[in-house]
């Protein structure tokens, strides 16, 4: 049978963000895959070197339209470490609350995208409907649904009032009930299981070789979760439960994420029920002392690393962000070969890729 | 892996005393020469597989290029490699550690660093017909 190359993307009606996938196929079987990225590269790391530290917060927030708060959290934490600032506990708790809300909406968005990729449009609608409630809470707190503008260097800009906390708790309680649909889906739904079980497998060795992080790694038996391994912000006083599976297929990734949404709901409830009192910010200097800092946080897709180097001026000498999508993207060349062409969409959607994050 | 074990492994791989310092943010930082890099990274492997490479950061310092290899080994470890102007070739980690592949391609895009032994140093983020010098390699232009 003839071997042919099928180019998919970078612009393709079924792809939400630009990525080039070249599949070598023989009949209905994928033999090899080559991935091309860089189509939404905006030179943001270069831009960051030309703006002040405070302006940089708004730039890193625009790296990604899903995990925008994770980017500002990692960036602000890095500058705070460089400038030896002590962030007030209330600010850390509000930061963490937004991080967990973001994890819930990111995982629900992903579940919708996967459901759509396997032709399960009802779940796509349900997942995105529930996600809206989380966006409503974030909008009530910050005024923004996607770019929240909550983090500043040294703390947060927005407070959470007692009334907002009560309303958020009620909405999260309702969401917890609605999560039963998704638990049933990933545990029992026959059509979902048949489309996701045993495909796109990654072994624990693959995870180590490619440096894969986040829910994709935890679905393959890896345990790294920066919230547990190197607690930061409010995770220093919260207990973060673990969701680790060993199957390494798309189904395991779905199960890990659905479990993580439930854990995040508990973390949000704990934070809202007992927000520490006190100031929202500490005063930050315009010029940051010379030096370099490295921080890692657990973004919705996994370990997000920021490196910031200061030459003592009011602008960073270098900012580098390694986003968690990159290693997963690299590993597509291992996940795709051997698949039936009809399963490619499920594996690509199931990997939870963010091209804007990868390209910066 | 704890701090002492990391230092012992790296020192026996490098065959010399290595100085260890802690960066703000908590990572341990160790300076290495380019030729010792591959052996040092191999020495960090455990029975679970190679060390977890989180990222490679690259930037220019004076006339030199600096490469920072960020690892997570239960604690943060950064290996700092300086390559001097005129000999900006560093051995590639990709053949032994696939995770390094795209990070090395990105450093090649942005600073023009060549990684000897990399199987495919094609542009990753830049367009193949990018006309100028590597964007982060030169002097800052006026905005």
Task: Describe the protein in words.
- The complex is a heterodimer of chains A (360) and B (143).
- Chain A has 14 helices and eight strands.
- By secondary structure, chain A is of the alpha+beta class.
- Chain A has one domain: Cytochrome-c3 Hydrogenase, chain B, CATH 1.10.645.10.
- A five-stranded mixed beta sheet of chain B has the order 1-2-5-4-3, with helices on one face. In chain B, strands 6-7 form a two-stranded parallel sheet.
- Chain B is globular, with a radius of gyration of 16 Å.
- Chain B has a domain of 83 residues.
- Chain B has 143 residues and is of the alpha/beta class.
- In chain B, 41% of the residues are buried.
- Chain B starts with a helix and ends in a 27-residue tail after the last strand.
- At the A-B interface, α3, α8, β6, β7 and β8 of A face β3, β4 and α3 of B.
- Tally of helical segments of chain B: 3
> Strand share of the residues of chain A?
5-15%
Low-confidence stretches of chain B: none
Largest sheet of chain A: 3 strands, antiparallel
Main interface pair? A-B, 43 and 38 residues
Instruction: Give the rounded overall mean pLDDT of chain A.
Output: 91
Order of helices and strands of chain B: HEEHEEEEHE
**SSE order of chain A, one letter for each helix or strand:** EEEHHHHHEEHHHHHHEEEHHH
Contiguous low-pLDDT stretches of chain A (5 residues minimum) are: none
The count of DSSP E runs of length 2 or more, i.e. the number of strands of chain B, is: 7
Helical residue percent band of chain B: 10-25%
Query: Helix/strand/pairing class of chain B, anyone?
Result: alpha/beta
Distance between the amino and carboxyl termini of chain B: 45 Å
Say how many strands of chain A there are: 8
Name the features.
heterodimer, A: 360 residues, alpha+beta, Cytochrome-c3 Hydrogenase, chain B, 3-stranded antiparallel β-sheet, 14 helices, 8 strands, 49% helix, globular, B: 143 residues, alpha/beta, two-stranded parallel ribbon, 3 helices, 22% helix
């Amino acid at each position: 049978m003839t071997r042919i190359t099928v180019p998919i993307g970078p612009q393709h009606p079924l792809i939400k963000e630009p990525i080039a996938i070249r599949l070598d196929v023989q009949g209905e079987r994928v033999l090899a895959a080559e991935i091309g990225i860089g189509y939404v590269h905006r030179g943001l790391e270069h831009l960051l070197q030309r703006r002040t530290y405070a302006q940089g917060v708004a730039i890193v927030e625009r790296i990604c339209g899903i995990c925008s708060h994770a980017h500002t959290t990692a960036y602000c934490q890095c500058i705070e470490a460089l400038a030896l600032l002590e962030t007030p506990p209330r600010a850390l708790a509000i930061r963490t609350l937004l991080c967990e809300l973001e994890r819930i909406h990111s995982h629900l968005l992903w579940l919708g995208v996967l459901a759509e990729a396997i032709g399960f449009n009802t779940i796509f609608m349900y997942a995105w409907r529930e996600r809206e409630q989380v966006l409503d809470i974030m909008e009530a707190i910050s005024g923004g649904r996607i770019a929240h503008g909550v983090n500043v260097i040294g703390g947060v800009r927005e407070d959470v009032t007692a009334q907002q906390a009560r309303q958020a708790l009620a909405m999260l309680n309702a969401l917890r009930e609605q999560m039963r649909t998704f638990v049933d889906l990933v545990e029992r739904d026959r059509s979902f299981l048949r489309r996701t079980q045993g495909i796109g497998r990654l072994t624990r060795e693959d995870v180590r070789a490619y440096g894969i992080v986040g829910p994709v790694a935890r679905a393959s038996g890896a345990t790294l979760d920066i919230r547990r391994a190197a607690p930061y912000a409010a995770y220093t006083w919260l207990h973060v439960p673990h969701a680790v599976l060993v199957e390494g297929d798309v189904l395991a990734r779905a199960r890990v994420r659905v479990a993580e949404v439930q854990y995040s709901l508990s973390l949000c409830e704990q934070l809202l029920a007992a927000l520490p009192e006190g100031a929202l910010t500490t005063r930050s200097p315009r010029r940051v002392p010379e030096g370099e800092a490295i921080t890692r946080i657990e973004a919705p897709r996994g370990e997000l690393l920021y490196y910031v180097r200061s030459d003592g001026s009011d602008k960073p000498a270098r900012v580098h962000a390694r986003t968690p999508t990159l290693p997963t993207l690299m590993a597509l060349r291992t996940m795709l070969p051997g698949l039936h062409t009809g399963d490619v969409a499920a594996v690509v959607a199931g990997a939870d890729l963010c091209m804007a994050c990868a390209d910066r | 892996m704890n701090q002492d074990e990391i230092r012992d492994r790296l020192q026996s791989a490098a065959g010399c005393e290595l100085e260890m310092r802690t960066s703000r943010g908590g990572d341990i930082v160790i300076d290495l020469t380019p030729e010792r890099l591959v052996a040092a990274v191999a020495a960090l492997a455990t029975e679970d597989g190679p060390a977890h490479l989180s990222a490679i950061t690259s930037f220019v310092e004076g006339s030199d290029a600096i490469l920072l290899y960020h690892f997570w080994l239960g604690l943060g470890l950064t290996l700092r490699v300086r390559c001097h102007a005129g000999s900006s070739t560093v051995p590639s980690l990709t053949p032994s550690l696939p995770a390094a592949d795209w990070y090395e391609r990105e450093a090649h895009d942005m600073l023009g660093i060549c990684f000897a032994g990399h199987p495919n140093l094609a542009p990753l983020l830049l367009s193949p017909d990018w006309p100028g010098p590597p964007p982060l390699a030169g002097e800052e232009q006026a905005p």
